[in-house]
């Protein structure tokens, strides 16, 4: 229909596209994103990711993932070229080869996928002038490897706020999630919607022109997540991200994890993101993921998965000792599993469902029981731990035991 035939005129606040996201609930919901949000994002990409007419942007993300729209805007939204690689999931040497052969200048690569590239690619991919990471926390190990001689930017944001809300150009191993994009405001609030002081964790709320209209045909869920903004003009809204963050002393936002990632184990409330942060600060560890597993009904345990840096090996005993110096005992994982690489989903995020169950084994050395009392105790502990036997000087907690 023509503009005169429309019931209401078209405006920048109309829906530009609807994309479905499962979020943390597993139930798909359509997010309706406006034209206003897209124009604000394009100007941010020009400023912070240095996109322009000469950009050659690789399309790695699936069309079902809103990062594909980010890639589209980086290229076509600024007069550049969008490069479609050969079909199939790219990673490791294949991805490095594609970036080189297609002379890619700009790429959005989630950290888990970036970690699969050979280390020498950071030096040999000379035409890759702008590298964007996001969708998950970036390991500090990746920044000094990839940031030199190119612009490396971290983008953060939910689909409900037009793909990305915050951005930060990375120059050192410390990886805050950044400053607000153009026409965007953020608040760090406690459970009573009061501003959280510097250094105190709170939930991140997003306001401004980038907010989506809401969820398609789901008014109840829209009103639950898009709430009135007490700090804005009358009628303005803000989006509850469900992400736990804090302001640091430099005025930057640091990501701590999901509010719904909080786990309660034996009476203690635990943020896995804090343990992950402690792990990635240890020498020799490139990536870390911490999850709560219930491999036996009623027995929930923290398990850490770590990927060592190139040419490094991981001693789980040493890692555990380091964590004990930084964290209370109840936050030290029951098991630490070393992997060659993290499993990733087709969208390049860590595939937590593919992480293997830990195998709890006795140390394999140590003295045997010498007295009847020690025999009774070691047999009882072995039965509790589900092990065939343990030594008298094995550590009950290191073998997965708890109170």
TrEMBL record:
SUPFAM superfamilies: Acetyl-CoA synthetase-like. One of its GO terms (molecular function) is phosphopantetheine binding. InterPro entries: AA_adenyl_dom, AB_hydrolase_fold, AMP-bd_C, AMP-bd_C_sf, AMP-dep_synth/lig_dom, ANL_N_sf, PP-bd_ACP. Residues 368-403 form the Carrier domain. Pfam families: AMP-binding, AMP-binding_C, PP-binding. One of its GO terms (cellular component) is cytoplasm. PROSITE patterns: CARRIER. GO terms for biological process: amino acid activation for nonribosomal peptide biosynthetic process; secondary metabolite biosynthetic process. Keywords: Phosphopantetheine, Phosphoprotein. This is Amino acid adenylation domain-containing protein.
């Amino acid at each position: 229909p023509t503009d005169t035939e429309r019931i209401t005129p078209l405006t920048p606040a109309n829906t530009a596209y609807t994309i479905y996201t499962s979020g943390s609930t597993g139930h798909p919901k359509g997010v309706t994103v406006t034209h206003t949000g897209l124009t604000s994002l394009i100007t941010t990409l020009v400023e912070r990711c240095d996109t322009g007419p000469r950009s050659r942007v690789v399309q790695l993300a699936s069309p079902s993932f809103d990062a594909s729209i980010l890639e589209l805007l980086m290229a076509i939204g600024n007069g550049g070229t969008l490069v479609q690689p050969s079909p199939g999931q790219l990673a490791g040497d294949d991805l490095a080869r594609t970036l080189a052969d297609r002379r890619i200048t700009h790429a959005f690569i989630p950290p888990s996928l970036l970690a699969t590239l050979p280390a020498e690619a950071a030096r040999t991919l000379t035409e890759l002038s702008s590298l964007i990471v996001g969708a998950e926390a970036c390991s500090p190990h990746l920044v000094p490897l990839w940031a030199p001689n190119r612009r490396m930017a971290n983008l953060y944001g939910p689909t409900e706020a037009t793909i990305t809300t915050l951005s930060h150009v990375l120059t050192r191993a410390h990886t805050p999630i950044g400053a607000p994009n153009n026409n965007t405001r953020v608040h760090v609030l406690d459970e009573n919607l009061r501003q959280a002081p510097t250094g105190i964790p709170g939930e991140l709320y997003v306001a401004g022109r980038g907010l989506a209209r809401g969820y398609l045909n789901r008014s109840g869920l829209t009103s639950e997540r898009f709430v009135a903004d007490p700090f804005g003009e009358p009628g303005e809204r803000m989006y509850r991200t469900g992400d736990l963050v804090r302001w640091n002393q430099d005025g930057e936002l640091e990501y701590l994890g999901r509010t719904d990632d909080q786990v309660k184990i034996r009476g203690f409330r635990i943020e896995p993101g804090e343990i992950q942060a402690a792990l990635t600060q240890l020498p020799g560890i490139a990536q870390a993921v911490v999850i709560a597993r219930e491999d036996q009904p009623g027995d929930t345990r923290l398990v850490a998965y770590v990927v060592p840096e190139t040419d490094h090996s991981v001693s789980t005993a040493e890692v555990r000792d380091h964590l004990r110096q930084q964290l209370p005992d109840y936050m030290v994982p029951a098991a630490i599993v070393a992997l060659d690489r993290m499993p990733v989903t087709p969208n390049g995020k860590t595939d937590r469902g593919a992480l293997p169950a830990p195998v709890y084994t006795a140390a394999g050395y140590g003295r045997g029981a010498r007295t009847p009392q020690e025999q009774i105790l070691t047999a009882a502990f072995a039965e509790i731990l589900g092990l065939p036997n343990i030594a008298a000087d094995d550590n009950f907690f290191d073998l997965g035991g708890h109170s």
